[in-house]
Amino acid sequence: MSRLQIPYTGVLVDPTDYDPDRFESVLRKYLGDKGGDPVVIEVFNDHIQYLTFIRDGQIYWCCASEPEGFSELSVRESFSSLRRTQFPKVIVYSIDLLLFHSLIVYLQTKPELKVSSTLVDLDELLDRIESEKRNALVTALQPGNLVMLRYKDGVPAACYHGLSTGAASETTRREDFLVKVYTMATRAAFEIRIFTELVVTHSEDARPVPGDFEGPISSFFLSQPPKLIVKLKNRPLKTYNFTGKQITVGRLPENDIVIDNLSVSRKHAVIHSVRTGYVLRDLGSKNGTLLNGEKIEHGELHGGDTITIGKYEIAFQVTTGEEGLVDTLDQTVIIPRYHSENSPKKDAPANKEAEAFPRLYRRNDQEEYPIEGNSLVIGRSRESDIRLKGLFAPRVKVNIYKSGSDWVLEADGKRVVRVNGEKMEDKVLQEEDLIAIGSEEFVFKH
Predict the structure, then answer these.
(1) CB count, 10 Å around CB of 157?
(2) Are 81 and 50 in contact (CB under 8 A)?
(3) Taking a C-beta distance cutoff of 8 angstroms, is the pair 62, 77 a contact?
């Protein structure tokens, strides 16, 4: 295995054999340092490399090497994997914030461009980023070597290779990057990647360790995930394990917790896992969301809290201590309609509010966008409902609007749009039409 060499500002712990007690003391030291520089902990052997990113005194993100790159791990999975790794070694690096973020971008997001250094004019690519004043990350990877050039608004903000002090000026960062790449490329070609999507996320179970927690750090993350217990008249109906980044509650079937009751809105509330814990947010519901009896728009969740939605209560339970592996996540379940005087009769017409909107499925991000109004715009501008991001995104504006009972696509721009492989500037859309705009693909669903 060829380890990814981590660019760094300093080495805090030299390579040493992994010892559980020593590793625990290292974790406690850097998880207790709320105002210190970000830290990367590398654990590796001849077959695998684990990276743990720590920021503001808490674990932010974890990943592990694979034959074709790195895969994201939950904090729980990371600790569980370390237990099974044979004869690992540990290194701890200090790292500045911009480098911390850039390295996660490289490991976590998909590049807009990936090409061999022998097939691309690097100067021309960098000129384009600078002329368009883009935020971007340019990386050059060679076995054992990673060189990174970070742009902010088209200006080189940092260049990293090996020990990185960040002392270079704006005028020399680009030159440093090119000299390093061209010099080392005489031995082997580099793989050049350009990232223009710089948004990164934390691990789904990242959360601060309470100051009064006395057990091993690993046991805190290896504990059972929070549970959501849905009750009606104090009678438990269903229990959910919170193992993802969010869980939604509402009447529509696409929610994670479906409550088929008129007192519950189509999309009523959502619970997010954030770096500081868990947050409950009302989604503009008609009857509101209560947290411990208080009507809220958003609020922090703690173990023992009670969420009230319509006639239902949801108990939020958090456990600590090591209690075995995560149970399989309960899938969506429809909670039976609570029959009351206000419940509709069986023969009553369907509620208009429950009608499904047409939507676009974005293949690249695997996301769906409902067309809730009479139109939706796709384009590069900030005003677009769906933005085409990236250095090579076409300069085109695509409007999808309602005309009578039809939905019509209309394209305005220098580059044409393809629908089901055919070039066209306007079309009445049909179910499952495939819309291609540059490298982006959307599926129309009615």
Answers:
(1) 16
(2) yes
(3) yes
* Cβ-defined contacts of 135-139 (< 8 Å, 24+): 135/196, 135/198, 136/194, 136/195, 136/196, 136/198, 136/391, 137/102, 137/105, 137/106, 137/194, 137/195, 137/198, 138/177, 138/192, 138/193, 138/194, 138/195, 139/106, 139/111, 139/192, 139/193, 139/195
Give 27's contacts (C-beta < 8 A, 6+ positions apart): 41, 217
Count of beta carbons in the 10 Å neighbourhood of residue 52: 23
Reading the block at residue 151, the tokens are: 């742009």
Residue 261 to residue 338: CA distance in whole angstroms: 6
Nearest alpha-carbon partner for 125 in 195, 217, 30: 195
CB 59 within 8 A of CB 50: no
Q: Are 244 and 201 in contact (CB under 8 A)?
A: no
> What residue ranges of the chain have pLDDT lower than 70?
1, 162-171, 275, 319-356, 365-366, 391, 413-415
Backbone angles phi, psi at 295, to 5 degrees: -70, 130
pLDDT tens digits, 299-329: 999 888 999 999 899 999 876 543 333 333 3
The pLDDT tens digits for 134-183 are 999 999 998 878 899 999 999 999 888 765 544 555 568 999 899 888 88
Q: How many CB atoms lie within 10 A of CB 383?
A: 8
Structure tokens at 90: 């540990």
